[in-house]
Amino acid sequence: MAELTTADIQTDYMAQVRSKRVMNMILLIVFVALMLGGFATANDRNAGGFWNGLPMLLDFPTDVISEAFERAHLLPGYFAKYLPSLTETINIAAASTLLGGILGLLMSLLVTRGLAPVPWMVGPLRRVLDVLRAVPEIVIALVLIFILGGGPVPAMIAIALHTVGALGKLFSEVNENASLKPIEGLESVGAGWIQRMWLGVIPQVAPNYLSYALLRFEINIRASAILGFVGAGGIGYDLRNTMSWGQGKFDEAAAIFLLLFFTIVVVDQTSSYLRNRLTHGSIKGEMHA
Amino acid sequence: MLRIDDLTKAFGQNKAVDAASIAVDKPVMIGIIGRSGAGKSTLLRMLNRLTDATSGAIMFEGQDVTQLRGAAKRNWQSQCAMIFQQFNLVPRMDVVSNVLHGTLNRRSTFATMFNLYPTEDIHRAIEILDRLGIAEHAPKRAEALSGGQQQRVAIARALMQDPKIILADEPIASLDPMNAQVVMQSLRDIHEQDGRMVIANLHTLDTARRYCDRVIGMRGGRIVFDGTPEQLTTGAARDIYGADETFSEAATSTEIETLSEEVAKLADIAVSV
Predict the structure, then answer these.
(1) How far is CA A151 from CA A117, A145, A208, A219, A255, in A?
(2) What is the average pLDDT score of chain B?
(3) Is this prediction's ipTM beyond 0.90?
(4) Which of A120, A132, B106, B204 is the most buried (most CB within 10 A)?
(5) Is A16 near chain B, with CB under 8 Å?
(6) What is the mean pLDDT of residues B209-231?
(7) Which residues of chain A does B123 touch, with a Cβ-Cβ cutoff of 8 Å?
């Protein structure tokens, strides 16, 4: 092997740095060109035009907030009025997250290379997850409402199916980062596949599972609110009725927005609390010198 | 040059460092020894301002370091390089980029975000790597290197800072004896050739004796010994470690006598390159 001098190493490294910089510059130019080009195209096709519409951006929030301020004393009453439909929305989201999470966990273990019990099924099952994520939940919900009639159950099934696709993918990425050493340890004592997964993989990745599942829960609360727009019940139905122009019900819409905001805050806080408990156990006050 | 007055760090009721006072008038190589939990790491972390002191002062060239805020604090940190037990490199970035991180305080945030370092800096980074005998690893990712090589990259990052003081927090505790020798010899060379002050936390007595001009012993957050290696008798060492008569220096030694020839060879390589 020829001995490299410091000068050689410097020249080689500078050549690498230069080619990296050229690549970055090209990517930057392509990015800026795409952004500008895409904006121009979209703006031409738009009915109103971005720059003309921009000054009106704040009109709707201003109306909502000013009406809510004028009738602020009515807000507590609205909170009570809409609490039952909020509960329905949260129930839809919770049931679909739980169902979707359990199925997603199972699917994730089946599609993680290195963990999957049937390696040749990894590809096909991944495509199944892709399909579940690709079909908009509103389409599934509309089809199910047509078959089963309106109500929370079609919404729950629609959101759960999407959740299986989303969490299956996220969980399997988490699984890939799990250390294989404990699993090898369990294999060496003669443990079966389910035992290895349950006792070797899940303890390692449970905190990440939990935070993804709770993030999904937040997203599902919003999704189930949106499905209310198409007749799946819950707070979305009320939101559609109150936030249409010219009804004079913007104060009620503001109350619903606030309820949704508080719900997300509570979920978020619970999430970080549970995650800390799971990651660090309940031992506190460990200090390093 | 450097004076530490009554420096204290309390975690609740617990004092990690208790009224430590040290005066250093010229750049020397200092070894701090003591049991784990004696407050050695906290002391170094306070010097670098990674940890804030509860009370006391650190005077360096007439300035109280503990009072610095914002940009002045970061400027101090750039003059006072830190080397960690677990190397603390960015594993997915290449070796030269990790060394160039030593210049972050001098460069604009925008330029460093896009890895736009001046050519002279890149050349100097590779020269420093060459001095430490690892120039051929320059384009590799830091995580691809062995522990001893990673620690030398960390030393290169410290040298890139062109610091007045180098703090080393257990620099050899994660290394095998041969790599430990190379790393300690590199620190000694930096001290002798560049005239930089080096303060190293060490967990073995023989390393402190062999490489340091001055040894400070800590026990339970207090400084219980401060003197030359010759003054560090077995009795003094027993005091520092809180041990009884069964304690001997060999108990803390990591030296392998049978390997001493190869070790000397490696140390020679470190000196010659």
Answers:
(1) 39, 8, 33, 20, 23
(2) 88
(3) no
(4) A132
(5) yes
(6) 92
(7) 10, 14
Scan residues 41-70 of B and list those with Cβ closer than 8 Å to A: 41-42
The overall pTM is greater than 0.80: no
CATH of the domain at B122: 3.40.50.300
Chain A residue nearest residue B45, CA to CA: A289
Residue of B nearest to A13 (CA): B139
For the domain spanning A64-280, the CATH number is 1.10.3720.10
**Which of B41, B50, B96 to mutate to probe the A interface, most A CBs <10 Å?**
B96
Please list every residue in chain B whose beta carbon sits closer than 8 Å to the beta carbon of residue A24: 114
Residues whose CB is less than 8 angstroms from the CB of residue B78 and which lie 6 or more positions away in sequence, other chains included: B104, B105, B106, B161, B163
Burial of B52 (0-12, 13-18, 19+ CB in 10 A): exposed
Domain layout of chain A by residue ranges = 6-48, 64-280
Q: What total of structural domains would you count in chain B?
A: 1
Q: Does A12 touch chain B (CB under 8 A)?
A: yes
> Residues A117-141: pLDDT tens digits?
889 999 999 999 999 999 988 899 8
| Per-residue pLDDT reduced to its tens digit, A55-84 | 888 887 887 788 778 887 888 888 888 888
Q: Is B17 on the interface with A (CB under 8 A)?
A: no
